[in-house]
UniProtKB/TrEMBL annotation:
One of its GO terms (biological process) is positive regulation of DNA-templated transcription. InterPro entries: Aldolase_TIM, GlpP. Keywords: Glycerol metabolism, RNA-binding, Transcription, Transcription regulation. PANTHER family: GLYCEROL UPTAKE OPERON ANTITERMINATOR REGULATORY PROTEIN (PTHR35787). This is Glycerol uptake operon antiterminator regulatory protein.
Amino acid sequence: MDQQKQRTRLTRILPAIRQMKDFDWLLASPYETLVLLESHVGQLRSMVREAKRAGKTMYVHADLVHGLKNDDYGADFLCQDIKVDGLISTRKNMVLKAKKQGISGIQRLFLLDSMALETSYRQIELTRPDYIEVLPGVVPDLIAEVKERTGLPVIAGGLIRTAVDAETALQAGAAAVTTSEKAIWKHYIQNRGEY
């Protein structure tokens, strides 16, 4: 495992940031890896810089950065200028660009119906992301299926509202769970000691 991949290893719970007050709280937390869901392009540089100063790994959901176009130039900007540790996207060009730049590429897929799932499998064959984020993350059978069918680590996200939801996803084979529920973040710190 190269040094970059070691530095960006996943933990079981990946706090997903929607608000700046959560970002500040997480900088002081024991969580090593943070996921930035919604942000403005003007905030990115300082947020990633602060996270790195605090010893955190920062994944950015490229599709949810306001003011950024999801094309190759946007991906280059995030990888080369902002220097994120990983890109999360539904778009194959973003995932491929991340991998080409040597950072983690996370393919996000929505479990809408069987046809969408089959289309996602074909796309994953082309991109071969480092991780697959499955939404919603509260469908254990499909987490197991995606992991088995692709041979790639799965992150469960979306509608993870309780610690039981998180545990169910992890027991189904998810490598990690993304959640914006602060109660879950605190639960894992206080009760489990796993982060």
